[in-house]
Design goal:
CATH topology of the largest domain in chain B: Rossmann fold
Shape of chain B: elongated
Largest interface: A-B, 35 and 52 residues
Shape of chain A: flat
Number of strands of chain A: 33
Number of strands of chain B: 10
Distance between the termini of chain B: 43 Å
Number of helices of chain A: 14
Structural class of chain B: alpha/beta
CATH architecture of the largest domain in chain B: 3-Layer(aba) Sandwich
Strand order of the largest sheet of chain A: 18-17-19-20-26-25-24-22
Helix content of chain A: 10-25%
CATH superfamily of the largest domain in chain B: von Willebrand factor, type A domain
Radius of gyration of chain B: 21 Å
CATH class of the largest domain in chain A: Alpha Beta
CATH superfamily of the largest domain in chain A: Class I glutamine amidotransferase (GATase) domain
Radius of gyration of chain A: 39 Å
Oligomer: heterodimer
Largest sheet of chain B: 6 strands, mixed
CATH class of the largest domain in chain B: Alpha Beta
Number of domains of chain A: 5
Helix content of chain B: 25-40%
Strand order of the largest sheet of chain B: 5-4-3-6-7-10
Chain lengths: 676, 300
Amino acid sequence: MGLFAPFFLLGAIALAGPLYFHLLRRQTTTPRPFSSLMFFEPRTQASMRHRRLRYWRLLALRLALLALLALAFANPYVLRPAASVANQRLTLLVVDRSFSMRAGNRLAQAKAAALARLAEVTGRAQVMALGARLEVLTQPSSDHAALAAAIKGIEPGDERADFATLARGMRALGTAAPVALELFSDFKQSSMPASFSDLQMPGNIALAMHPVGEAGANWTIASVQAPARVWGSPKETKPARVEAVVAGYKTPAATLAISLRVNGQAVGTQRVTVPASGSARVVFDALAPPYGWSRGEVRIENAHDALPADDAADFTVQRADPARVLLVHSAGDARSPLYFSAALGANTGDAAYTVESVSAAAAAERTLANYAFVVLSDLPAIPPGFDANLAAYLRGGGGVLAAAGSAAGGAGILPALQGSENLASRPLTVGTSDGSHPATALLGDWPGIHFYFATRFAPGDARVVARLADQTPILMDRKVGEGHVLIFASGFDDLTNDFPVHPAFVAFVRESARYLAGEAAERSSSRLVDEYLTLRTAKEAGVGVEVTDPSGRRPFTLAQAASAQTLQMNQAGFYQLRLANGRQQVVAANPDRRESDLTPISSEDLALWRGGPPGGDAPAAAAGATPAPKIPVDLWWYVMLLLLAAAVAESIMAARYLSVRTDLESPAPVPLKEVV
Amino acid sequence: MPAISNESYLDPAVLGGISDLELIARTVVDGFVAGLHRSPDFGFSQEFAEYRAYAHGDDLRHVDWNVFARTERAYLKRYRGETNSQLTVLLDASRSMEFASRAPSKMDYARYLAASLLYLALHNQRDAAGVIVFDDEVRDFVRPSTRAGQLARLLGALARAKPQARTDFTKPMTHFQEFLHRRGLAVLISDFYAPPEEIVRTVEPLRFHGNEVVLFHVLDPAEMKPDLKDAALLVDLESDQRFEVTPDYARHEYRAKLDAHLADLSTRARAAGLDYFLLTTDRPLDRALREYLTLRHHRN
């Protein structure tokens, strides 16, 4: 007999409680008044002896109750020969359906082997499939027809299998009965977890391995680097670049033809020599997709390898017109538009933004809703009509970047002016900067930037993002309605500071533009199978999304479409989304390229996992390595039943002992009329 | 209505149902008298005893004029018990008197007893009667008298007596000697939870003025034989002291100690010329009345 959690036996310390209350603690009976204790003597010892005699059964029950409770938590078990519980034995047939099982006829072999093993099973069996998760396909059953149908119905997946997932699933089974785990897999090296201890399984599970497939040479498109967006007309912009890496596993040196396809049309083919078991880089400068979303593919045309499914990698690219930015400056200021436009253009070589520079007088005639954001550069005053337009634009979610240089005056959308500070004699640098703000995330502590002039604002409800060394707020973010105003308390003219000629200005302008335009950070155009896509933000709850998976099906029900926060991509191909914010998106999902390495696990590692000698037969090792294997049988239920019985007996006995005593009874008074 | 015997009027349990102390006293005394046989040992003031020659200063109202007419000599007609005696009841009102295992409590029993004695003395014997209520101090005092309304004053003093302190005979008895100037009968009613030697030493001086002193020792039956089924925590009513007591001890050692105490007190009291009577609250009151009359008779 043993204990699964012996530390819980420390709970037996609680046995001291009843002992104390029954034997040591003074009796707390109701005091009885008496005329005089002149002829009495205290006899506590005698009283205790008497009490012990009376309550020993109750004490024994209470001690048993606590002891059983501690024992139940300690989870006792007895070791019984496995043969004695053979009728409870469960055969678990697990078929690996990961992406690598698409190689050759591995999955067919695995299913055939599983069916053959099922035919030998006499007791209960259960079928599971191993992918990114351990999928339970049947409940434990003796119905071989249903079990065979479940095995035959297993389809290859695009997910990556990890044997740690299998071991975790086995640990979660929570059964003490013997389990024969029959695993049908290609046992590739890349499915092993980083830590070997993650493969540990409970002692009642005997692992039998059924390897399928042979290690073969395999080429794959290991990665594709393509822009997520391109801007402007395809005729006016140069083609974008696509870079791909071709890798080989157990492959000889070979020259491969790599093609780039966009929306099914081949736009380029290149030949590349890949060294033996090495990799090579391919560059296509020919990506000129049309407006909207395009589906791209980089493919090895002449691979002829073990796993053709990984010879292509998908990506998506979106073409759109560049966003317009309105830069409003004073009539005599030509420097600010120059620096700002140069910085914005330097950032986005593909021209994501076009800057329109206008004077303050002309700005009132522009429809601000047509602009991604507005830049106010050192305006002495804002015309009343334009000020009202700006306020409405901000309330509707627009963005404004306001630079307040030496000529700046107040405006309704800016914090209150408190004056200015000429720092020409003692230039200041930035003292503190809030790195959590998107506009300054890449600036660090603004190294080497000097300020010669700063306009003083009272921050009020604005968030101070950066301060000069003398604590003057230099960058503030004020929320107006749904929009934001980013206030830069100096100019963009290279006179009030040297920021515009500093490289950090480019990063500042780029990140500020993205922040004010409401763009998400740019991500790679392709994802991995099993990754999660964010479908909505917290503010977009209740708004429906539409998802179409690579096979053309809609994975969400109507209810799920209105509430799902994320989508896990479990197929390779293109997912078409209409997000909660109304935007269309096409996402490419590629299988994890670790599945492309078909190198099997070494026999030593397999033996270590199985717990037997290297090269030993797995089923034999599981079934007959020890002549009479014993398995632990849980006694928890029996202990709990005893605990329940003890609790009931204790309640009954305590109710008898602790009932109200009626030692003193007064006779009923005689009515007066009977006397008189 | 079921017939009620005279004896039942003297049962303390029956008396416990009556709230009026005067009614209790009248019930007891009338029942007692009705059941009393005309014994030569007992007499009442109305019964002729003897003639005595008139002496100067005697009240002319007591001269028997019939004898004077026949003999031309003035004789005073004397009755039994007409001895100008007085009865003083000393009632212990300490907290221990509050104890009751059954009705009535010792205090109530002592009240009934005192009321009956006082009623008998005033109404039947025409004696002066007074009462002193004490615990460790003199709490109430009604001077002995035969005046009209004396009974009401006495019974009022008895009704007001509330157990509230410890028993201490020393101080009250000192005061009693100041009150008891005339010869008479002093009846001390108490549970006497004190060393017998101290009790007798303290009470004995009451006899020095020619008083007859009677000790009525009132105890509850549960004090005589405590009935403990289990170990119990007993609380002293006077000192608030607490003991955990076992049934074995109460059954054997306590009874032995109490018996020794009673025997010692009785012996010492009689040796000092004090009359001692033990009463339990489940016993009728007639015994006490009988003792009183016996003593009074002997005094005359």
